[in-house]
Amino acid sequence: MMAMVGLAVALFLVFISRIPFGFVLKHLARVSIFIFPLCVLILFTYHQGDEIARFYFLTVTSGGIEHACLIAVRALAAVILIFPLIGTMRFDVAIKALGKLKVPNKLVQMLIFTYRYIFVFIEEVQRMFRALTSRGFTGGMNGRTLRATGRLIGMLLVRTLERAERVYNAMVSRGYEGNLGTLVEFKIGGGDILKAAILIAIAIALNVF
Amino acid sequence: MSERAISITNLSHTYPDGTPGLRGISLDIIRGESVGVIGPNGAGKTTLLLHLNGIFMSKNGNVEILGKEIRKENIKGIRRSVGLVFQDPNDQLFMPTVFDDVAFGPLNMGYSEAEVRQCVARALDWVGMTGYEPRSPHHLGVGEKKRIAIATVLAMTPEILVIDEPTANLDPGSKWSLIELLRGLSITKIIATHDLELVRVLCQRTIVLDKGRVITDGTTKHILVDKPLLCAHELAPPNAT
Ligand SMILES: Nc1ncnc2c1ncn2[C@@H]1O[C@H](COP(=O)(O)OP(=O)(O)OP(=O)(O)O)[C@@H](O)[C@H]1O
Ligand SMILES: [Mg+2]
């Protein structure tokens, strides 16, 4: 029962944080791939209370159904709870917060560059694929397409390395010496602490009940 | 002597794969000058610019900035006085927000928080991009990216501005407003480009570079009317007369 309340609260939080439900559903579908088999297993292995059905050597009990539902609802609620947490923050602010939480500067730099260049990289891949397609490249698993794909990946690697070198030059020419400075405009307000407390409370409740 | 902003003597550069980038370049640039470096693809323009703030340091030849030879020990000061704007703004803008990008140089110079904020505000004002601080560079248009890229360098208040292909990939509107912007900056400028219109309005002096060598060095007025010279170095259509 508590788990259902937890699920409802989590959904409510998603609603008030104005995250598109479609986005949440898409990700839930992926998580369900893991939750669903688990529930089926529990259904047939957890025996308690009245026997409800029997297929050859498999029995389902009322306790089993209850337990499987509990696990499913709990897991879904826990996952949904993540969305208001990470779905509403700006990535650059999150990275700076990591820096403040004493995450090593090297790791923070890696995250920053991944975030900045992932789009550039994707565009580069798309451009190259378009160029291939316009010259009659179709997917498939024959030697010719595999060779073409291999060359494409090789080219990408080279381009990425060259870009990395140019970016590094640009950094060095503005005085980079290994440490990435950012002015941390990240402040924790009373409201943030309250929100964090609510989320943590729900998460704990999900585990206990 | 202190009038010289840049003094290059007999500079050569060979890439690790053996490609010659520069072969015996010598030139002087006076403080306050605005110099165009033109030449076909692969002429060595970018290679030359990378020598101006010590990204490349050749054993062959000598580069002096404001009367000081570039050495490991003074590289920090050199990079503060020579602002280098790269050809592709995606290489220059690597931080998650415009603010962070413009603040990058001043932070590396060890300025205080208040000074950094002041530098950023001033630089963005110079390039007409005030209000773009929280934007993510990736989502800006090419013209906007170019301006921000220039701001990242101006934030360090350099004495010499070195720009690689400022008008590449710009539509005519963005191009001319960028040219106006550059014209308004009264510091020493070295501009590498294929864009003869830009050279005509921005640079009193032009250096023609080809195959790593200085072909001509003179007033823009004279060089831009020398059609045979421009044709010989793929800077004008072959049938131009
Ligand atoms: N990383 C590199 N490795 C090997 N050779 C290179 C490298 N970068 C440039 N070159 C070569 O050095 C020469 C000069 O190149 P550079 O990039 O300086 O020319 P550019 O005048 O800037 O040309 P563009 O107008 O195309 O930008 C060319 O022959 C080029 O192929
Ligand atoms: Mg170039």
Keywords:
heterodimer, A: 209 residues, mainly alpha, two-stranded antiparallel ribbon, flat, B: 241 residues, alpha/beta, Rossmann fold, six-stranded mixed sheet, 10 helices, binds adenosine-5'-triphosphate, binds magnesium ion
Explain the overall architecture:
The complex is a heterodimer of chains A (209) and B (241). Chain A has a domain at 2-88. Helices cover 74% and strands 4% of the residues of chain A. Chain A has seven helices and two strands; from the N terminus they run H-H-E-E-H-H-H-H-H. In chain A, strands 1-2 form a two-stranded antiparallel sheet. In chain A, strand 1 and strand 2 (58-61) form a beta hairpin. In chain A, helix 2 (21-45) packs antiparallel against helix 3 and helix 4 (91-100) runs antiparallel to helix 5 (105-134). The longest helix of chain A is centred in the middle third of the chain and has 30 residues, at 105-134. Chain A starts with a helix and ends with a helix. The model of chain A has no long low-confidence stretch (mean pLDDT 81). By secondary structure, chain B is α/β, with parallel strands linked by helices. Chain B has one domain (4-232): Rossmann fold. Chain B is 35% helix and 25% strand. Chain B has ten helices and ten strands. Chain B has a six-stranded mixed sheet with strand order 6-7-8-3-9-10, with helices on both faces. Chain B has a four-stranded antiparallel sheet with strand order 2-1-4-5, covered by helices on one side. In chain B, helix 4 (98-108) crosses helix 5, helix 4 runs parallel beside helix 6 (142-154) and helix 5 crosses helix 6. The chains are: A mainly alpha (209), B alpha/beta (241). The A-B interface holds A 91-92, 95, 112-113, 115-117, 119-120, 163, 166-167, 169-177, 181-183 and B 50, 53, 55, 76, 79-80, 84, 86, 88, 90-97, 99-100, 103-105, 107-109, 113, 116-117, 136-138, 152-153, 156. The complex binds adenosine-5'-triphosphate (ATP) and magnesium ion. Residues 45-46, 87, 164 of chain B line the site of magnesium ion (MG). Chain B: Residues 6-236 form the ABC transporter domain. Chain B: One of its GO terms (molecular function) is ATPase-coupled transmembrane transporter activity. Chain B: It holds the Pfam family ABC_tran. Chain B: This is ABC transporter ATP-binding protein. Chain B: It comes from candidate division NPL-UPA2 bacterium Unc8.
